[in-house]
Design goal:
With 198 residues, the chain is α+β, with helices and mostly antiparallel strands. It contains two helices and twelve strands, in the order H-E-E-E-E-E-E-E-E-H-E-E-E-E.
């Protein structure tokens, strides 16, 4: 006895979509693209406005007031977190900041007692500012840097076209208004500044 089975017709493949139809999927893709394009566009405008406000608030003459520890207590000296003496002991730093003049042309001055240092500034992000300080090759610090370069050939300082040194410092802004500036100092401290004339 021969048993034959009826051949089943293969099921027709359909493009089933989670959202019902492929047309609905296409609409969802378009809405998705439009949504993220608008977020990116508006986000860029907000960032530009934030940068302009930060720049406006930074420009001016800043007077150093005091250095505070994590508990809000004023300190006069701090232990450096990354500098050591030749004997391997941590360096103790005077917790006094220079007064700072930040100009709208990208230049700045640091004034500490009777010493004036010139340089340049730029905003790296909403909470980071960079100072590139110019150190004359003929100054005491410049001569020390030349000696260090000779003793340690791997030490390579950036120089301008006249052979003066450019030293980059990065500062984290903890708080900034049109009257007050707080900058992170060493690891657990902050320097407080007030804008002159405000």
């Amino acid at each position: 006895m021969v048993i034959t089975t009826a051949k089943r017709k293969p099921k027709k493949k359909t493009n089933r979509c989670l959202f019902g139809s492929s047309t609905a999927l296409k609409k969802m893709k378009i809405l998705f693209i439009l949504f993220f394009t608008s977020i990116i566009t508006f986000g860029q405008n907000d960032t530009n406005n934030d940068s302009k406000l930060i720049e406006e608030n930074l420009i001016g003459e800043w007077k150093f007031l005091k250095t505070l520890d994590q508990n809000g207590n004023e300190v006069k000296k701090v232990t450096s977190r990354n500098r050591i003496t030749p004997k391997g002991k941590p360096v103790i730093l005077e917790a006094i900041g220079p007064d700072i003049i930040i100009n709208n042309d990208g230049t700045l001055k640091k004034i500490e007692k009777e010493k004036v240092s010139n340089g340049f500034w730029r905003i790296k992000s909403d909470d980071v500012i960079e100072y590139e300080m110019l150190i004359s090759k003929n100054s005491k610090q410049g001569k020390a840097m030349i000696t260090l370069q000779k003793l340690s050939p791997r030490r390579n300082y950036k120089e301008d076209e006249k052979g003066n040194f450019l030293v980059l410092d990065t500062y984290i802004i903890l708080k900034l208004t049109d009257r007050k500036l707080e900058i992170k100092y060493e690891k657990n401290y902050k320097m407080i500044y007030a804008k002159e004339g405000k």
